[in-house]
Predict the structure.
Amino acid sequence: MREAFRRSDKARLASLLPAARGHALEPWAAYWELKARLEEANPLDVQDFLTRYAGTYQEDRLRNDWLLLSGKRRDWAAFNAEYPRFRMRDDREVRCYAAAADIAAGKTPSKDVAEQVRRDWFAQRDQDDGCLYAAGLLHQAGVLPYQELWKKARLALEANRASLARAAVALDAPQVAPDVAAIQQNPLRYLTSRAAVGTHKGQELVVLAIIKLATQNADQAAQQLDSKWSVQLSPDDRNVAWGVVGKWAALSLSDQANSYFSKVTRDADLSDDLLAWKTRAALRAGDWRAVQRAVDAMREPAADDGAWAYWRARAQLALARSDADRAAARAGLERLAANPGSLGFYEKLALEELGRPISVPPAPAPLSADEREGARRHIGLNRALLAIALGLRADGVREWNYWTNLHVPGGMGDRELLAAADFACARQVWDRCINASERTKSFMDFSQRFPTPHREAVLRQSQAIGLDPAYVYGLIRQESRFVMDARSGVGASGLMQVMPATARWTARKIGLDGFVPSQINDRDTNILIGTSYLKLALDDFQRSMPMAAAAYNAGPGRPRNWRNGPVLEGAIWAENIPFGETRDYVKKVLSNTTDYAALFSGQPQSLKARLGQIGPLAPGEPDLSRDLP
């Protein structure tokens, strides 16, 4: 039935449904059958389903689908009948439809409603009906000013989503929406073909063109601003334009990035994303005063993010002129290090900055028999694990996440999460074990968060080639969460997520005769190939763990380029990695490695020592990594 659902084979689904009656996964079977024909379904069919499977994840999942369909149809009676019963409340488009439904009922939208729609609309990366429609209604009602519509257009065009930008512009000025296509096609020509602007729409289009040009060539965009457009833009628009130019210069690791950001006269005009890139550029340039100013300008919750809390405290320490200044900086580090439910990358760095080594935290109180039994009798958790065991991993994962995080506001309590993680660990569903355990806020159970499946095989192979087992486990945990048959969208496979081409090259390099790509899915072969490649990368990048991890994730060519420029402490280098996925990956692999080392050794560990310093090769030093694929 799952395969028939993927093919939208309604007849096949209908014929198979009777055979699924009474099965533990019947709610999934019934959901697929009704979801496939939801657009032509009778509302009574929907109500029958919601009644039959009341209280299940599948009930709320179908309610989510029905709310989206009702909103699309502008059937506000059907929407309002079900929205109060919607438990997950995690669908941005549904929230936007809820605002539209209230306006349709004659309610005057509040500023809070407008702000919620704005946040949800700005967060949408693909065009949807609900948030665009709600934004238009709010704009007509006078509570979403035109500036917000153009801000959405800026974000969309910067992300190379011209259709989203054009739709946003059309809400304010449909007559100039076609200009967005011209800007998308050739922003430099658009800018050079115009002499001056006199209206807010003209200024907004120029800002769009500057933003688009910055994504292609930050220096050209800076030249356009300096030579022509800066004086014609309002101060806040000029600041945004320079902020975007600075961001894209920072993404290319240009030495000009910090100087471009210095042209921003008011940091409050920049979004938190631009302020984050201003902070990164300032870190790379060693400009601690700019670091502090940028973080101070961030809004909540961005300013409370561990990264920016840490770098703000570091800036305060670097700029301190008195004991009071140093005490304020240490207080920020203390707040970050005192998080009882997290010991992530920046929490560890804060601990080390305070002179405290990184150790395994105290284990929580053992689970009681009743707590264990509660998890083992939980029908939703059982259904999730059964789906995963039968190969329906994506569906099982969604159901698991629903029960642990979305079934009630705030999700399960810490002791329930501890019991759920224990249940998944006992069933060797390691990714769900880690997922549930990582949600606890008042304590950390490292035995759950950092499990060591396949320990004999990993230790044997790591030790045979001189690779730190903690590093291998830190990487596997991030790559696959120990899912044996994990497969990425680009074709990487197995525990260590090895690409076929990389596997063939590594097999030849280590003399593994007769290797064929299908062997990647064999556990021991996957570990052999993955650890061998990691060891080659580590050796070729002068034993730099951050650079080898970056090479494993993004390919070796990129970190070869990212190392050029000033010599940086490893944490600053990692923070400036241009790819968000790789930046997060390197931090988590190194953080995981430190935790596994603490577990294995029973001794305090240093994350900073593993990060080291990173910079260009010394003159005449050979680049051994050139051979890595």
Observations:
- The beta strands are 568-569, 613-614.
- The first strand starts at residue 568 and ends at 569.
- The mean pLDDT is 96.
- Residues 72 and 87 are 20 Å apart (CA to CA).
